[in-house]
Amino acid sequence: MKALTLHHVSLQVSDIIKAKAFYSNILCLEEEKRPDFGFEGAWYKIGEGQLHLIVDKTLSQERKIDSRGRHFALRVEDYQKTVEWLKMHQVEIVEKPTSKSGFAQIFCCDPDGNIIELHVEQPIK
């Protein structure tokens, strides 16, 4: 077996209206047409891949930004502008500008506590 690319990531959300406001307006992702599966959700285009949101109204909305927790990462264009944008929208963040990973990282949570990493490559020293 040989994986060619990551096609999509699926996340469970409890409230599609709040989730879509976050992913569309805060993370500025482009929503795509989604088939009618008979349950609520949304699809977003991210480069060549997608993010799928699936509604589960029984979710606990515990919000803890844990950089070692389950998360997905988005490459962003500018670290400082991303920090400023998130703060302007009152999104709680954890900054790791000199992470050992080789990425300058910003972590935040969506309204349901799903962890998102936003990063840029940092210069190798």
What's a quick, concise take on this entry?
The protein has one domain (8-121): 2,3-Dihydroxybiphenyl 1,2-Dioxygenase, domain 1 (Roll), CATH 3.10.180.
Q: Could you characterize the architecture of this molecule?
A:
The protein has 125 residues and is an alpha/beta fold. The protein has a single domain (8-121), classed as 2,3-Dihydroxybiphenyl 1,2-Dioxygenase, domain 1, CATH 3.10.180. Helix content is 17%, strand content 35%. It has two helices and eight strands. It has helices at residues 16-26, 79-88; strands at residues 8-13, 30-32, 41-46, 49-55, 71-75, 94-96, 103-109, 115-121. The protein has a four-stranded mixed sheet with strand order 1-4-3-2, with helices on one face. Strands 5-8-7-6 form a four-stranded mixed sheet, with helices on one face. The protein is globular, with a radius of gyration of 15 Å. The protein starts with 7 loop residues before the first strand and ends with a strand. The model has no long low-confidence stretch (mean pLDDT 92).
